[in-house]
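We treat protein structure as text, and this decision shapes the records that our systems exchange. We quote a single record here, exactly as it is kept in our systems:
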Amino acid sequence: MASRSMPQIRRQHRSLKHQQRRQLNDGANLPSPVAPPAVSSTEP
């Protein structure tokens, strides 16, 4: 079970980094609307 959760969390982590970079490029117009939910999703 943990093995299955590992890849999912790793994938979300990559998405978060990618989104943060994209937002930075966008000019940080939004207050990270996808950052809070993403972190909550990784938590049990």
Q: What stands out?
A: The chain has a mean pLDDT of 61. The radius of gyration is 12 Å. Residues 2-26 form the longest helix (25 residues). Residues 2-27+37-42 form one domain.
